[in-house]
Structure formats: structure tokens, C-alpha cells
Amino acid sequence: MGKVKGRDEKRLKPDQSPSRDVRSWLDEVKSLGLLKTVEGADWDEEIGAITDTNVKKNKYTLLFDKIKGYPKGFRVLTGSLLDSRRVALTLGLPPTMSDLELVKVLRDRLKSAGENIDEYSPRYVDDAPLFENTLKEVDMSMFPAPKWFVHDGGRYIGTADAVMTRDLETGWVNVGTYRMMLKDKNTLSILFEAVRHGRFMVKKYWDAGKPCPVAVSFGHHPLALMFAGIEAPQGVSELAYAGAVSEQPYEVIKGPVTGLPIPADSEVAIEGYIVNEPTTEGPLGEFIGYYSMATANQAPTVKVEAVYHRNDPILLGTCAGRPPHDYSYFRCPVRAALIWDILEKAGIQGVQGVWCHEAGYSRAFTVVSIKQMFAGHDRMAGYIACQSRPGAVAGRYVVVVDDDIDPTNLDDVIWAMCSRSDPATGIDIISETIGTPVDPLAEHDPSKDMLEYTGSRGIIFATKPFGRLLRNEFPKVVEPSPEVKEKVTREWSEIF
Ligand SMILES: Cc1cc2nc3c(=O)[nH]c(=O)nc-3n(C[C@H](O)[C@H](O)[C@H](O)COP(=O)(O)O)c2cc1C
């Protein structure tokens, strides 16, 4: 895994209670008028249906309480990161930023995070409200884990979870979001896709003939989800990253069974071992919007040894669906910032903006806007964006546009594609790139390892031909002059 930055080895002076907390986060969301409490819904499909319908309509953050068959107080939270307001709030930023402004701030913060990451190593505290209830007699069905949709293969307690594992050799602690289904009282399944750090770590333990210690938080400040659920740079602790980007170290508590760090703001967590005993899991609706791993999968088993929860615990949950879905937004600005950073590190000048669109579930439709400086500039940007780690996995299309195009505005982007890209010469295809069995176009072959799947990428160059741009020969855009536009907007403000 290489040199490990921001690893959790630094033990700072203990604090009393977590300074980051999902309950105070909920108060802030409420003060923006974005929170709705939903009482009496069934864990069996109703929470999923309400969550999905909400995303397509009013985009509230939803707190489900008095869930059918469960005591009041055992809650499920969805819609936590539905738009720029909630992502900004989660990062401690004003909730008034446009998508692109958010990307720019995130980019600055990610950049300085990379430089100062050690200052933001997770900070250990001695106690946490999580330990208000410590259970060794385990029955995971005590929590209202939803069965989200009709074709799901079971109840998923882990959809927005934070899974902590420690590398056997380097000691690096990885935090990832990997789905977890209820199997029986003390058994869960966990599904790793191909290129996941968690999967590689588990394999090392198994190769050494050992079970892999694991700690999982099922309810936490949405900041943990933001960074557990996206490809952080190699060798960087996700919690250190989350701390650095929010400019406040992430507080963690040492798990009594495994010694792994658990977010101190966790509402519900378990510790246990991932054992080399395949179990069936799924299907579960995928982020692409399909049941594309159609049949049940064979996945590792988690044996739960201890359960901790706060009084009146809140499970953080989410579900996929036709985009936009409950978790399609938050990865757009983070992924865009990560790709932009990689472009800059690769020496690509003149990048004006990057946006990953929700319709492409943040992965499959990325737009890079550049100020063209030489012929071939757009090719450099497009190829690197589509093969960078955050841009490659489950990718499909990258569109490169000029700097007068707002990459977040689909009308603008499609207009550029239609008017500046000649399909015969303006679309490059790369085949045999990294693939995934989650791709609905993938031909499933049970004899194939997940790592063997490939796919192709289309890079669309919706840029003015450079020679004509240089000689100012590309047709002028039909639009009002900036001065007159400014004047009429001011003078006829009632229209605008
Ligand atoms: C809501 C949500 C659910 C996810 N579910 C899974 C999953 O079940 N399995 C998986 O391998 N990746 C899943 N991911 C993607 C990983 O969390 C993501 O790629 C992350 O970067 C993995 O961490 P790693 O790069 O350290 O392995 C999910 C992401 C989100 C946001």
C-alpha cells in the first residue's frame, strides 16, 4: 500500500465527548427547513419507497421513527447528502454555494489536506455515547434494517456504513462503505467489489490463515460517509482526509474487541471478524439504477462479537434507484474535485471546472472544462480524467468542453457536444479498460473473477477546433453583449 499518510497511530490527549455529532447536524438541517420526521413506516419496502420518491420530489432529509415492529427511538436517517446545501453544511461551509463553487472549495481543501494530512490524524477519545449500550448477546435484528425495494434479497443494515479494517503488514486503517445484509442473529454478509482496499486487506488475513478483524459503524455524521464512500488517494486514511477537508480532526474511539478505531460520533457499531466462509447475499439495487448483479452473490461472512449503540440510535441508510437517487449527489462534487486535482498533478493546465453528473451516478458522465492552449490539450485532459482512479471505476463517458461552457449545466454541455464535436473525429474510444460486474452491459460469467471484467470508455471532445479558435475563426455565439445584458437585468429586475 506504500507510504501511509495520516494513519491512526497518533494518540492525542483524550477528550470527553465527540465534537462532531449526527444529532447536532440534524438540528442544523432542521433550521434550514430541510428535515422531515416520518412516523409509522414499515422497514419492509416503505422506507425505501418514501426515500426514493422524496429524492425525485422535494429532497428532504428524512428521519424515520416509530418504525413498524420497533420501539420509538430506533430510527433510520436517509436523504443526508442530497444537494450542495447539505454537503456544504456537512463540511462546515455556508449552505449557499453553487455546485462548481463547492468543487472549488473542496479542491482547495483536498489540496491542503494532502499537504497537512498528518495534522488531521484521527484523534482518540476515551469515551463515547456509543457505549451507552454494550451488548455481547448479539441479535442484529434488534435494529430496523430496511428491505429497501421489492427485488432486494434481504434486509440491509449497512448501506451508508463505515467499515474499518487494518492492513496486516502496514497497519494502515482503511474505511470503506460496503453493503452489509442481515443473515442471522450474529452474522452479516459484506460485499466488496473488485478494486476495493477492504477486499485486499481481508485477503491478506485469509492468506495468512487468519480471520480479518473488522469494526463497522452503521450510523454516524454524514461526513464519514462522504469519505468512506469514495476513492480517497492511495495510502491516505479516509478519516484523516475527512478531518482535513472539514478542518477538524475526526474523533475516534478504540474498539474494545479489535482495537480498530470507530468514529466517536457513531450511533450504532459492531466489532467482529470477516471469515473465509462465503455466504449468499443480494441482490440489492445498484448505484447504476439496476439489479445488474442480478442473482444472489457469494460474499464474505462477518461474525459479530459485540454490538454498541447509543440510546435511541440512528441508523444512517441510503438506497440506489434510477438517478437521481439518495446517494447520487454527494459523490459528484467530491469526485470532481479529486479528478481536477489529478489533472493538475498530471500537468494539465487551464482546467476551468470539472463536474460529475448525477444522471451518470457521479461515475459515468464526467465533464471537464478547459481553456484550450494548444492542439491536443483536450485529448490530454480527456484521457487522464477517464483513466484516473476516481474517474475510471464504472466510468463510461468523459466530455471535454471549452471554458465558456458550464460543466454542471447539461444543456450547455449537450449544446457543446452538438455544435463543437464532429462524431467522425471528435469521439475516441478506449477498449479493455477497467470494468465491473455491476455494469448492466457486462456479460456475467460465474467462472470469471471480479477483477477480470473490462469495459470501454468514450471521450467526447466538444471543443472548438484549436486552429480556428487560435485564429478567431470559429463562429461567434448568438448572445447579448455583457454590458447590455447587465443593464437590462438591472433595469427589468422584475423579469429576471
Ligand atoms: C452508499 C454507498 C454504497 C456502496 N456500496 C459498496 C459495496 O457494497 N461494495 C463496494 O465494494 N463498494 C461500495 N461502495 C463504493 C465504495 O465505498 C467506494 O468505492 C470506496 O472508495 C471504497 O473504499 P476503498 O477505496 O478504500 O476500498 C459504496 C459507496 C457508497 C457511497
Q: In words, what does this structure look like?
A:
With 496 residues, the chain is of the alpha+beta class. It has two domains: 295 residues, Electron Transport, Fmn-binding Protein, Chain A (Pnp Oxidase, Chain A, Roll), CATH 2.30.110.10; 140 residues, UbiD C-terminal domain-like, CATH 3.40.1670. The strands form four sheets. Strands 5, 6, 7, 8, 9, 10, 11, 14 and 15 form a nine-stranded antiparallel beta sheet that branches. Strand 12 and strand 13 form a beta hairpin. The longest helix has 18 residues. The N terminus is likely disordered. The structure holds flavin mononucleotide. The site of flavin mononucleotide (FMN) has 18 residues, from strand 8 and helix 5. The site of flavin mononucleotide has 18 residues, from strand 8 and helix 5.
Notable characteristics:
alpha+beta; Pnp Oxidase, Chain A; UbiD C-terminal domain-like; 2 domains; 13 helices; 21 strands; binds flavin mononucleotide
In short:
By secondary structure, this protein is an alpha+beta fold. It contains 13 helices and 21 strands. 26% of the residues lie in helices and 24% in strands.
